[in-house]
Design brief:
Layout: H1 2-21, H2 23-27, H3 30-58, H4 64-81, H5 84-94, H6 96-100
Helix pairs in contact: 1-3, 1-5, 3-4, 3-5
């Protein structure tokens, strides 16, 4: 989760720098940036729910099946979904040029 937050910070800095050069550079990577933010926020929420579930399990809560499933889904998210943040970070930081080079009239 820490790496995903760091990637989001780096992508945000890159996006702000791109917008300072020209708004079109920021707009060109806005969708990947929003996807990145959604994944990181989702990871934060999953980590938060896993922390709560772990605490309830330690306290002897009787709904062990539900709480164990919460931990499993958080782990799945961390293992299978959150790694996508790195690719999106690279797109935000380096992908604007390929979008801006396309002549919209040819599409």
């Amino acid at each position: 989760m820490v790496a995903a937050v760091s990637a989001a910070c780096a992508a945000s800095d890159s996006l702000l720098a791109a917008m300072a050069v020209g708004p079109e550079r920021g707009f060109a990577v806005s969708v990947p940036y929003l996807k990145l933010c959604g994944l990181v926020i989702g990871g934060w929420l999953m980590a938060r729910s896993a922390d709560i579930a772990a605490g309830l399990l330690e306290s002897g809560d009787t709904d062990r099946e539900f709480l164990t499933a919460k931990l499993a889904t958080a782990r799945f998210y961390a293992d299978q979904i959150l790694p996508q943040v790195g690719g999106l970070q690279r797109i935000v930081q380096h992908g604007a040029a390929s979008v801006l080079e396309v002549d919209a009239a040819l599409l």
